[in-house]
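Chapter summary example.
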Amino acid sequence: MAYKKIIVGNAGKKDKKYKVKQNKEVDIEIVDPGTDEFIVEILDLAGLPSTVTDDEETSQIVWHNNFAIRKKGGDYIKQRYRVKLPGANALRKAGKKIVIFDGVTNKGEPYVFKGTVDADDTFELINGDPAIGSSPP
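The structure predicted for these 137 residues follows.
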């Protein structure tokens, strides 16, 4: 299925952090931004893939948010940024998985995030066009 992105708004910015408000609010902080200016676009959740396969097990996804980070006047970033997803550790403790879909990684399919989630529910990504969800619902 082709995925169509629809911009539903730009994220608010405060003190070099961006706030994306959708099903779950997330804070985004770009690591080492230098002097670049960034735009964080809030994208539509409709049309995102509905399942993820991990360790040969397929399960449904609940999408929490979808956004894109661009350098002002440019393409999606390919640099480190931190995402704070309130409840990320609680999801994992409940046996759920954090799911990322960026259209590039994992041959363009959703994948289970296996990286570290800090005590404050923050984790690091690189591709600037992710949707973030959890599975199973």
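To summarize the output: DSSP finds one helix and 13 strands in the chain.
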